[in-house]
């Protein structure tokens, strides 16, 4: 997560991305991580 935040400015400049792109990318990554942890926990206990 820190790497995405740190490199966000560089990505925005190189790819002409809007400011919110990095926040959206971090949000998607966070949701995927939470979902995978939940799925793995259910699979282990179920």
Major beta-sheet overview: none
Count of helices? 2
List the helices and strands in order.
HH
Report the portion of residues in β strands. under 5%
Q: How many separate structural domains?
A: 1
What is the percent of helical residues? over 70%
Average pLDDT taken over every residue: 84
Rg of Cα set: 15 Å
Low-confidence sequence ranges: none
Give the beta-strand count. Answer: 0
Shape: elongated
Task: Please describe the structure with a list of short key phrases separated by commas or semicolons.
elongated, single chain, mainly alpha, 46 residues
Short summary:
The longest helix has 26 residues. Helix 1 packs across helix 2. By secondary structure, the chain is an all-alpha fold.
What's the structural blueprint in terms of helices and strands?
Blueprint: H1 2-15, H2 20-45
Question: What report would you give on this structure?
Answer:
This protein has 46 residues and is an all-alpha fold. The chain has one domain (2-45). It is built from two helices and no strands. The chain has helices at residues 2-15, 20-45. The longest helix has 26 residues, at 20-45. The protein is elongated. It starts with a helix and ends with a helix.
């Amino acid at each position: 997560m820190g790497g995405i935040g740190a490199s966000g400015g560089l990505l925005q400049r190189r790819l002409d991305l809007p400011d919110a792109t990095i926040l959206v990318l971090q949000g998607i990554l966070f949701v995927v991580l939470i979902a995978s942890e939940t799925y793995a926990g259910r699979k282990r206990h179920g």
